[in-house]
Amino acid sequence: MGSFKRGVKKHFRMFAIFILLVSIANVICKAPDGYVINNAVGHGYKLMYIAQPWDRACEKCLEDGAKLAVPKSEEEFKFIQKIVRGMHYPSIIGSDYNLVAWLGINNLVNYTTWRNVDGENINDTGYHRWAGLNGQGYSDDPAEPHCAGIDGINNGLRDFWCQKRLPYICETQT
């Protein structure tokens, strides 16, 4: 009987350790399926392959319990850019331009100020670098680019036409 009790205790301990590890894993990884975790900032990101205009992309992220991604540091920008660099282009559906993905930045309300979907002026958030001359033209003409995206190569934000259908990146807290 002594060896039977030891065996039961051993299996019970192993089961308890297993339950503990599963519980820890659920606490560590709170992001929904398909999100890539950036532990440095506590966010998860998901590249959405069904292209949408900028405003619809915002809505779709909200429906997923997230928001359009907003880089607030150079490191966060580079993390998101790696996701874009890894896009599987043949999987993108309905896009007007496959090389750029929407971010949560625009100047739709005031064409002189680029704001993120959190309502912050991007000049105050820690990341506001533009690729080349992108983001420099200030026009209230709706035919001009008023939304921002990211590509896999350029070291900075890209201004783009909001009505164009592009893949997009959602961001959630982890």
TrEMBL record:
Signal peptide: 1-29
Keyword Transport: no
Protein name as catalogued: Lectin5
Species per Swiss-Prot/TrEMBL record: Antheraea pernyi
Keywords: Signal
Source lineage: Eukaryota, Metazoa, Ecdysozoa, Arthropoda, Hexapoda
CDD domains noted in UniProt: CLECT
Matches recorded under InterPro entries: C-type_lectin-like, C-type_lectin-like/link_sf, C-type_lectin/snaclec_domain, CTDL_fold
Residues covered by the C-type lectin domain: 40-171
ATP-binding keyword on record: no
